[in-house]
Amino acid sequence: MANIGSPKVRGPNGAVSAGSMVDVKTLIKHPMESGFRKDRATGETYPAHYVAKVEVNYLGNTVISAEWSGGVSKNPFYSFSLKATKSGPVEVTWTDNKGESWNEKFDLTVA
């Protein structure tokens, strides 16, 4: 399928205070096929193809590890908050049930 991937991750603009909670928003293009939907013309089932795992690392430590299924909508948007302790990278990795993965990161600046 064309245009799978192209992840986007957006964190706060500019520096944040140490100890503050910051919102992070993510988006990835993915068909998120459950394996139950059928082609109306042929009656054939579309094969399952979905993001199975989302992992968030901050300063090299895993802070979120989520298992997803085909029940999540196409092109999933995911947002979360994390506590800013030190400046460093925030990296999000998506892995689908076919073993393909994508990642995107941004540098969080703590003043």
UniProtKB/TrEMBL annotation:
Taxonomy, superkingdom: Bacteria
Pfam families linked: SoxZ
Coiled-coil residue windows: none
Location of the Sulphur oxidation protein SoxZ domain: 15-106
Protein name per the record: Sulfur compound chelating protein SoxZ
